[in-house]
Amino acid sequence: MKKIDARTFKQDVQEAHRQQIVRLRKSGRPNKETAEIVGISESHCSKVWQRFKKEGPGSIVKGKRGRRQGEQRDLTTEQEAEIKRLIIDKAPNQLKLSFALWTRDAVRLLIEQKSGIAMPIRTVGEYLKRWGFTPQKPAKWAKEQSTPAVVNWLAKEYPAISKRAKQEKAEIYWGDETGIQTGANVERGYSPKGKTPVLRQTGRKHRINMISAITNQGKVRFMFYKETMNSKRLITFMKRLVKDAGRKVYLILDNLKVHHSHVVMDWLEKHKDKIEVFYLPSYSPELNPDEYLNNSLKGRVHSGERAQNVKQLESKSRKHMKHLQNRSCKVKKFFDHPCASYAA
């Protein structure tokens, strides 16, 4: 009978052969006869039987083929753990690397610095993918932001505002201004490789502005205007806000210069029984949930068919804002952002 190399069989077949070998050998058949019955070499039959006698039933079950996890990697488990920890906890410049962000080049230099291994850039990318790191567009935070001021806002100032609001049965609004203009391009479109898609749009710049305010209960109030924000327009918006709320309003704003103008301050002093304004720490837009509404608005306005003039721009903007007014659950989700969850 022709003998076939057992290594060419699938694992299930190999396991069945090993079980048959053990069963025949236990019944008293010699290696030569067993090998003839199974259709394998006598030496392989002997090898399987000896291994079974020495290691037991576990030695004949199918195992995992190929290279074992971690085998033949350049970095040890300890080195990988150290590199991952440094990437998560440190910025490149803190480790004297001339990079602003962790790119593959930066990680390659870090690996060489810590382990002495000059790793190919492609291999660095494979390590990063294996560790669960992905290239991402960074969030931009101002260097001028004061960390102690942010900590104080989160730990003391806002909790005090919230407590006072409950005592006075006031409604807390977060407000912000934003501008929407034609020409902005935030969408991507598919196209054959090497052929950039073309987007036809007006070359003229048209712009509208909006001030809005939201609550963590999903309320949305907004007002469009064409010129820049000034004291008169801000007061007009606050008057509408107070009238619509039907109770005292606590309005939280950023530190735009007009928010601190003498005209606004005088008006607030005269109407302090109806509205009070509080200010976020400077250079901290991420703490304002209304910023995420602005992002939602711009994403919607600049998607689909492009606005070609002010009328179309305002129409698309107003449509989305009306949609949010009727979908309080979507507005509440702006407070789910990790930086704004304190206000939820």
Automatic annotation (TrEMBL):
Name of the protein: Transposase and inactivated derivatives
TM stretches of this protein: none
Organism: Pelobacter propionicus (strain DSM 2379 / NBRC 103807 / OttBd1)
Residues covered by region (Disordered): 57-76, 303-322
Source taxon at top rank: Bacteria
Alphabetized NCBIfam families for the sequence: transpos_IS630
GO molecular function: nucleic acid binding
InterPro entries in UniProt: Homeodomain-like_sf, InsJ-like_HTH, RNaseH_sf, Tc1-like_DDE_dom, Transpos_IS630-like, Winged_HTH_dom
Residue ranges of domain Tc1-like transposase DDE in the record: 172-313
Alphabetized SUPFAM superfamilies for the sequence: Homeodomain-like
All copies of domain Insertion element IS150 protein InsJ-like helix-turn-helix, residue ranges: 17-68
Residue intervals of the Winged helix-turn helix domain: 99-156
Keyword line: Plasmid
